[in-house]
Amino acid sequence: MHVVKAKGILSSKNGMNLYRGCTHGCIYCDSRSKCYHMDHAFEDIEVKENAVELLEYALMHKRKKCMIGTGSMTDPYIPLELEIGNVRKSLCLIEKYGFGFTVITKSDRILRDLDLLQKMNEKTKCVVQMTLTTYDEDLCKKIEPHVCTTEKRYEVLRQLRDAGIPTVVWLTPILPFLNDTQDNISGILDMCIEAKVYGVICFGMGLTLREGNREYFMRGRSSCFLI
Ligand code: SF4
Predict the structure, then answer these.
(1) Each residue of 23-70: pLDDT tens digit?
(2) What does the alpha-carbon distance between residue 52 and residue 32 come to, in Å, rounded to a whole number?
(3) What is the atom index within ligand 1 of the atom nearest the CA of 42?
(4) Where are the alpha helices (DSSP H) in the chain?
(5) DSSP-derived secondary structure for 17-40
(6) Rounded to two decimals, what is the model's pTM?
(7) DSSP label at 98?
(8) Ligand 1 near 74 CB (within 6 A)
């Protein structure tokens, strides 16, 4: 990891990335694409040392309450979060100032913050978005090697359901010859029904295959066919 001082934290659409880079290792990761101009190795996580202060300042000065989002470029629940705690500190602020919250993740580490998610959902609104790409556990370990598998994520969705927190599933990407079978898609949809998710997002289903993303995917894809 390396540390930087950020100039701002909230985008114009109230999204934020507390870290830059990710260690989950998904073979299809679009955030690796060169167009995002990351000037460091993707796994060398950039920590914004002043992220929490910037967020508090932004929340204090917002005229209207809204949902604050995170997780579109970097999964915030990387292992490093357990050491740094920027997500938890940010959730405390979002709850304190009465904003809503939504996150996209694949990690069961989100359960550490269940108390805060519940508090926010009671006060305003909290929506957890979880990505599910395959219900084949062995394939999952190959295409998303460094994060918990679908079975665990399904368990997280059920725990969130029981805690009254609305969830949404991202069923994407669908990769040719890997997870594009009817069995796979209906298997995931069955999980969504059982976990009572509020919606399933497909978002085009495919890959951008942009420079950076393309080479990484082709390497990862070949290793999926090796026994
Ligand atoms: S969790 Fe998201 S950001 Fe992290 S490697 Fe996977 S696709 Fe990329």
Answers:
(1) 999 999 999 999 999 889 999 999 999 999 999 999 999 999 999 999
(2) 25
(3) 5
(4) 51-60, 81-84, 86-96, 114-123, 137-143, 150-162, 182-194, 213-224
(5) -SEES-SS--TT-GGG-GGG---S
(6) 0.95
(7) T
(8) yes
